[in-house]
Amino acid sequence: MEKILDKKQIDDWIAALTDWDVHTPVLEDGIWTYQPVNSAVRGAVRLDHPNTNQSPKGFAFPQREIFFSFEQIKGEPPRLTQILPKEQRHAVFGVRPCDGRGVPRMDKVFTDHVEDPYYNARRKNVAYVGLACNKPPSPNCFCLSVGGSPVSTDGLDVQMTDMGDRYFVKAITETGKALMSVAGSFFAEPAAADQKQVKQVHAEAVAYPQRKINDPDGAPAKLKASFNSPLWEEMARACIGCGICTFLCPTCHCFDINDEVQSKAPLKGQRVRTWDNCQFPDFTMHSSGHNPRENTGARLRQRVNHKFQYFHENFGMHQCTGCGRCISGCPVGIDIVTVVNKVTEHAG
Amino acid sequence: MINIQDIRDTARDMLAKGEVRAVIGYRRGSRGMLAEPAFITDPAQADDLVWDPTCFHNLSLYLVEDRKFLTHVRKTANAPIAIVTKGCDARSIVVLLQEHYFKREDVYIIGVSCEGTGVVDERKLAPHLNGFQASNAAFDGDDFVFITAEGEKRLPAREVMADRCLECRIPFPKEHNAVFGEDKTGRQLAEPFAALTRFETQGTAERWDFWSHHFDRCIRCFACRSVCPMCYCEECVVDSITFPVTTETTAEDKANRIRWIERSAVRSENITYLMTRAMHLAGRCTDCGECERACPVNVPIRLLNNKMEREAREQFGFEPGASIGGPSLVASFLDNDPGDFIR
Question: Which residues of chain A are modeled with pLDDT < 50?
């Protein structure tokens, strides 16, 4: 299904999605974040953002997920109550292609071998309405290097393309068709000229220069061969061990599980999953005190190899989608493009 | 006017003579105009050093890292480390020296004056560049000059400078072994604590709303702590492991460790984290502003630290990092303390 939507009617489309909570990028406090289209945003959705500060991965994999609550009253068996996410449909507008490509990667982790009930409960209720990148929204974009493209539809339910005063809107999945059908009257059939124009816009988008990983195909083997390279420590010399790179990443999915105790007598609380971060010094710290990833070099290697080697070995694709957030966000200039290029070049 | 070649020559000479084991400075990174920390041990690499308005980083953080590493591997250093510092960074080193974190002879301070300006705030700069990314940034008197695909863009520094620099009172590293640039102490680009003063004109309810909003936004990546040279504790209250674990540590000790702050990034925990950090920086923060710059979600962390700094200044006339022999705020006592309860 391919349609044309007058830009002035995007608000009408969103208003018609009464069964959905709609989210759109909003500029607040100097950063773009997904916010619900409520009274403050309604009527002002413009989709003129570069990319959001954080990826949309939190819609299916929030930073904090409550698994169950527990209570132990003396003399009674412990009571556990599973807490599944609320059944509510979310339509996320303005998703950039790199973030769209993050979705099937997260799906691999949480649905391929093991079905994660919490992830799944959210995921089945999220629709991603993508926005193609007519030009790279960040100077650190490199989607073309990792098998993506500024017009990729991977992971998206709908793809929108900005054509000046109107959008070219294409349904990618059944969910996408449903989203468009609810507001059928606002859409027009594309004319031959529109088809021609969208092809032109996409061709220009793909031709736009980006940053480049020189040998993405060779990376898994070369990284594997470079496990003990002294380059890791050298390149991570400035790393401060914060969580920016992974917390902003559309595909980082490591988590920690803790019991948050609200009262000791009676013992009461919740078991909670939170995002974890391989750059934190206590990530994978053993209870013996031994830490297999003792320094910043080993932790940088973990992050990069997970994206470009381990994930590739497990699922046959790079985990990185080239959004460039980890590069732009790093306070000390650690740059995954430079790191991968340097290591792979030295691997010969 | 600072000639970067002078700094490079100093670095090269000292490395060649073995007077220092490394020079920590700034070099051009791979992300457009931005400088990044450089760790130079080979004299031939001294020419990589740069000095421009993107030299934000407070590199004294890496002196702390170096000290931690040496302690960990039980080694002593055979020579000092040289470090390029701005005024605020040099004051951080003074605080670390006051706290005996390392010795004065362990560090060779290559001071650089910010002269009439300071460092750029990327968030202020962005709207001036028409969506272009600068590939180079340079000081030129009271201006900053940026190079973009559109050509040269010259801007009055004060329009795009970081607030911390506008409000800086002493843009000169008084404590140094060598120093470059003119001492422009006394310049007044903005009132000290201007942002804080503006903020405090609001009522309690507005301020609470403001902070609730920002505490809710914190994602607890801990960049503010990690980038701070003063946050050097081996055991930080926010970490899941808040005490050193050894082979002697029993399972019970580990199971019963005190968890001061839950891992969830929710308001109660975020407040505890950010307020604890602010308190621990009282009298120690030299307003290098790195915490606020590093924050990926723009939490105005400087306001918290500024508040503590101004309290110390108004109550006790205390200036963090003023002199190595000077007292530290929380470990000193004044006979004329303004508080009756303590005299």
Answer: none
Domain shared by A87 and A113, yes or no: yes
Mean pLDDT, range B186-198, rounded to an integer = 88
Is the pLDDT score of B320 beyond 90? yes
Are A225 and A185 in the same domain?
no
Specify the residue for token string 């890292």.
B65
Q: pLDDT tens for residues A2-18?
A: 999 999 999 999 999 99
Query: What is the rounded CA–CA span in Å between residue B137 and residue B66?
Result: 30
Min distance A280 CA to chain B CA atoms (Å): 9
B299 CB burial (10 A radius; 0-12, 13-18, 19+) = buried
Residues A307 and A287 in one domain: yes
CA closest to A329 among chain B residues: B296
Instruction: For residue A214, tell me if it sits in a domain.
Output: no
Domain check: are A47 and A165 in the same one?
yes
Q: How many domains does chain A have?
A: 2
Q: Please enumerate residues of B whose Cβ is less than 8 A from a Cβ of A.
A: 29-32, 34-37, 39, 57, 61-62, 123, 133, 214, 217, 219-223, 225-227, 239-241, 244-247, 249, 251, 254, 262-266, 290, 293-294, 296-298
Mutate which: A140, A231, A240, vs B, most B CBs within 10 A: A240
Residues of B in contact with A260 (CB under 8 A): 262, 264
B84, B7 contact by CB (below 8 A): yes
CA distance A325 to A249: 7
Residues A25 and A158 in one domain: yes
ipTM here: 0.94
Cβ neighbours of B249 in A, within 8 Å: 289
Task: Read off the pLDDT of each residue in B155-159 and give the average, rounded to a whole number.
Answer: 95
Range of the domain at A337: 219-255+275-346
